[in-house]
């Protein structure tokens, strides 16, 4: 058996046997407690891979290894592959206690196709639709290719097109006339407002249509904010929530 001090074998962080090669000699290194007459931290190096000390084809027995150590012919530590460098500025953090690291299942398109658990189809999509009180569809300048749809006709036609390709969920965003906007956004819970009317129209025509609504005060607020704004600029949270609750019930 070869007795090697810990600094000469760079393997402090492994447990169990560590196969290594020195020249033509194959040996295993394993952590062991201190042994009489040896440094406290030692590695036991065996010429054979079996505990019974079977001789390998090189003809070296464990006894011969002991003699080599006594003569000072201790094998050098096996080369250690350097750890790839991290980008500059990477923080030094302890390794996460993860029992599994599944990123190897995502490293290539073939692996991702084999192990993916989620598939997206048109049935999963929610189509955002913008509506207004007018009869005609009008382009939205800030969103090329998008339109504010007339709630009576354009909206119904667009929903029909979406359903034809498998999209059966929509979310409505209204454009309310400025004359109906107030600092408290009361139009938000008008049962005969633009959004409630559009919902009733669509549900009459497509009962199984899934409709989401934007519960927020900004389309109905003269301040353009999602909340009620106090004169000193502070948002009145509780009062805003009270208004939003009424809006949610009305829709």
From TrEMBL:
One of its GO terms (molecular function) is zinc ion binding. It catalyses: 2 5-aminolevulinate = porphobilinogen + 2 H2O + H(+). Its EC number is 4.2.1.24. Keywords: Allosteric enzyme, Chlorophyll biosynthesis, Heme biosynthesis, Lyase, Porphyrin biosynthesis. Pfam families: ALAD. One of its GO terms (cellular component) is cytosol. Residues 76-85 have a biased composition (Pro residues). InterPro entries: ALAD (IPR001731), Aldolase_TIM (IPR013785). Catalyzes an early step in the biosynthesis of tetrapyrroles. Binds two molecules of 5-aminolevulinate per subunit, each at a distinct site, and catalyzes their condensation to form porphobilinogen. Belongs to the ALAD family. This is porphobilinogen synthase. It comes from Salix koriyanagi.
């Amino acid at each position: 058996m070869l007795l090697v001090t810990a600094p000469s074998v760079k393997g402090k962080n492994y447990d169990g046997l560590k196969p290594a090669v020195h020249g033509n000699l194959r040996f295993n290194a394993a952590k062991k407690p201190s042994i009489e007459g040896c440094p406290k931290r030692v590695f036991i190096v065996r010429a054979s891979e079996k505990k019974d000390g079977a001789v390998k084809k090189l003809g070296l027995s464990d006894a011969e290894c002991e003699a080599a150590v006594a003569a000072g012919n201790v094998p050098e530590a096996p080369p250690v592959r350097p750890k790839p460098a991290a980008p500059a500025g990477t923080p030094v953090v302890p390794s996460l206690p993860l029992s599994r690291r599944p990123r190897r299942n995502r490293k290539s398109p073939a692996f991702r196709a084999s192990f993916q658990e989620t598939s997206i189809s048109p049935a999963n999509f929610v189509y955002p639709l913008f509506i207004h009180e007018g009869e005609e569809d009008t382009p939205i300048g800030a969103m090329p290719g998008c339109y504010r749809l007339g709630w009576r006709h354009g909206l119904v036609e667009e929903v029909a097109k979406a359903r034809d390709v498998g999209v059966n969920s929509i979310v409505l965003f209204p454009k309310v006339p400025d004359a109906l906007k107030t600092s408290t956004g009361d139009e938000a819970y008008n049962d005969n407002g633009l959004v409630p009317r559009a919902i009733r129209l669509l549900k009459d025509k497509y009962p199984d249509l899934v409709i989401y609504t934007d519960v927020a005060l900004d389309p109905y607020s003269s301040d353009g904010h999602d909340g009620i704004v106090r004169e000193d600029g502070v948002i009145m949270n509780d009062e805003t929530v009270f208004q939003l609750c009424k809006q949610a019930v009305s829709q």
